[in-house]
Amino acid sequence: MTLVSEAVAALHVWVVLAESAGVHQETAEHLKAALTDAAEVRVDRGAELFGGRGARPDLIITVGTAALDGMLEQLPKKDVGWAKIPVLATLVPQSVVEARRAIVGSRPFAAVVLDQPFSRQLALIRRALPESQRVGVVPGPQTRLHLAPLEKEARARGLQLVVGPEVRAPEDIYPSLKEVLVHADVVLALPEPLVYNAGTLQNILLTTYRARVPLVAFSSAYVKAGALLAVYSTPLQVANQTALVARDWLAGRDPPPLVYNREFTVVANDRVAASLGMRPFEVDEIMADLRRIEGGR
Question: Angle, to 10 degrees, between the axis of helix 94-104 and the axis of helix 65-74?
Fold first, then answer.
C-alpha cells in the first residue's frame, strides 16, 4: 500500500509508546523532531491516542515491543477504515517482528529492527580480533532459525562457527556455553532473551572471563557489565533510520518489510581488554573501517 496526499501538511503520524521514559521516550522525541516537517506528529500512549479527537493517522509508528503488541491488540477493534493504516515498528528485535507477522495479517507492516546484520557483527570480529577464527554462539528458540545465514556469513569471512546445543530452558545455558568455550576463540552474543537477560548476564560474563574468551555483544550495557565489544545503534540512530522509512512511506514508496539500522556505534571495555592482554581499541577507527566495508561511507 502507498500513502498519497495532496498536501504534506494533511498527513498525520502517531508515534505510540508503552513506556514514557528511557530509550523509548528518547527515540520517540528524536522521531518527532525528524518528521515534524513531513507530517503532524503525535507522541503518546496508545490509549490516549485512540481516545483523542485528532484525525485518523496516515501512519502508525510503534516504539518498542509492548507498544507494538498494544497496537496490534487495539487496531482490530476499530472500524474498517483503520484496516489499511500501515504500522511501522521500531526498537524491536527481529525475532519479535517475525513472530508478530501472522497477527498483522494483510495490514501494511514494516519494522526497523534492533538487531545488527550478521555481516556487521562478524566484520567487527574480523577487524578488532583478527586472530580469532572460531566464533561461538549459544542458540535458543528465537535464534536457532538464523544459524544457517550466520554460518554462511562466517564462512564468507574465513571464520568457523561453533554452535552450542540449543538452550530450551534456563538450566541449559551453562552446559551449552561450556561446550562452546572449549572450542571458540570469541563468543558472539545473539539477542536471544532466554539466554541473554538480566538474570543470566553476570554468570555468562564471569564464565567467559574465566575461560579467557571474550564476549562480543549487541548492547552498550553489556560492555559496561564486562563484555569486550559491542556494536549497536543508539536511540538517535534508530530514530533517524525509522524517520527515513516513514518519509518514504508517506511519499508513496513502500518500504521493505525488514530494515536494519544503517548507522551504528562500536564500544569497547578497555579494562576487560587489558585483563585479556589486549591493547585498548581505537573504536573510531574500527567504525570508520566497518563503514568503508559496508559501502564506502
Answer: 0
